[in-house]
Amino acid sequence: MRILLNGGTGFIGRALCARLLAGGHRLTVWSRQPALARQRLPGVAVIEDLAEAGEIEAVVNLAGEPLVGRRWNADQKQAIRDSRLGTTAKLIRWMAPQLRRPHVLVSGSAIGYYGPHDDLLLDESTAPGDDFAAVLCRDWEYAAMQAEDLGLRVCRLRTGIVLGADGGALGKMLPPFRWGLGGPMGDGRQWMSWIHREDLVSLIVWLLERESAGGAYNGTAPEPVRNRDFARCLGRVLHRPAWLPAPAPLLRLALGEAAQLMLTGQRVIPMHALVEGFRFRFPELEDALRDVLARPG
Predict the structure, then answer these.
(1) Are 173 and 203 in contact (CB under 8 A)?
(2) 3-class DSSP assignment, residue 217
(3) Nearest to 87 by CA among 27, 15, 143
(4) What region, left, alpha or beta, does residue 196 occupy, with left being phi > 0 and alpha being psi -120 to 50 degrees?
(5) pTM for the predicted model, two decimal places
(6) In whole angstroms, what is the distance from residue 271 CA to residue 294 CA?
(7) What distances in angstroms separate CA 228 from CA 85, 189, 192, 285, 288, one per listed residue?
(8) Are 263 and 245 in contact (CB under 8 A)?
(9) Strand pairing of 2-6 and 58-61?
(10) Is 47 exposed, middle or buried (0-12, 13-18, 19+ CB in 10 A)?
């Protein structure tokens, strides 16, 4: 399959590139920083202009400005929206005039779509929330759905917390936990809906190849856990104590409004994928963490 990937240099994109190449697919990465992309993705065709893409059968759209890392202000929020909605709109404009369009678009989203929830079990039928992250995801998905009018099969992938030792949320957690300074965030009662990066990559490939797939899919493992239980499990796997909490006021002071992403959560299950027969290699957290931490690099 000839695949165009946007977001190939990211935490998920790098692993996806390796899997697609190993599967014999012809891969092109669209990047705003082509020199950096070529450095990070040796052997992958990299383009800066979509006009160079040629004939493409499938598109994976994962790129976006990170939500956590900077305090949210008006400019940062606009940059976050533009990096998702603007890029998706460019893809739609590129596809529209083509005589032979791609067949499928797998477009990124996040479980932030549902907004903060307490213990309510959420699946793909749950309505969107109304906070900044939820509205962002809702609008991003709506932008991707415009490809349906062009005849594409569109899969909207609502990703949870992706586990890999070399990046993402876990990559940030590991240093303090390894020093014995880890623990829950706030009171630790908030739910964490997580997924092993290898399972997420497998799910993306499954969506690309499964011709009947379409609509929203939660990119999360079947067993969400509370934050305090995640911390205990990570401490156990690392053979370190995990009792030192990160106080909610300190997180709010450091991150402002963005701290709500860490202090609230969603109890999400991947109902659509499970019903359609996708099998998770790592459905349970401890097995996932042990595998992640045993991998080189």
Answers:
(1) no
(2) strand
(3) 143
(4) beta
(5) 0.96
(6) 29
(7) 34, 6, 9, 13, 17
(8) no
(9) parallel
(10) middle
Residue with tokens 């493992």: 221
Confirm if 29 and 41 have CB atoms less than 8 A apart: yes
Helix (H, G, I), strand (E, B) or coil at 286: helix
User: How far is Cα 293 from Cα 38, in angstroms, rounded to an integer?
Assistant: 27
Written as six digits, the tokens of 226 are 């509370």
State whether residue 274 is helix, strand or coil: helix
CA distances from 47 to 41, 88, 101, 211, 236 (A): 12, 16, 18, 27, 44
The pLDDT tens digits for 160-216 are 999 999 999 999 999 999 999 999 999 999 999 999 999 999 999 999 999 999 999
**Which tokens hold the place of 140?**
């991003």
CB 95 within 8 A of CB 152: yes
Give the residue ranges of DSSP H helices in the chain: 11-22, 34-40, 74-81, 87-95, 132-145, 168-178, 197-209, 227-238, 248-255, 260-263, 271-275, 285-294
Burial status of residue 13 (CB atoms within 10 A of its CB: 0-12, 13-18, 19 or more): buried
Name the amino acid, one letter, at 294. A
The Cα 172–Cα 164 span in angstroms is 10
* Residue 252, burial from CB neighbour count under 10 angstroms (0-12, 13-18, 19+): middle
Q: Which helix (H) or strand (E) holds 196?
A: strand 194-196
Q: Look up residue 9 and give its DSSP letter.
A: T
Tens digit of pLDDT for each residue in 208-250?
A: 999 999 999 999 999 999 999 999 999 999 999 999 999 999 8
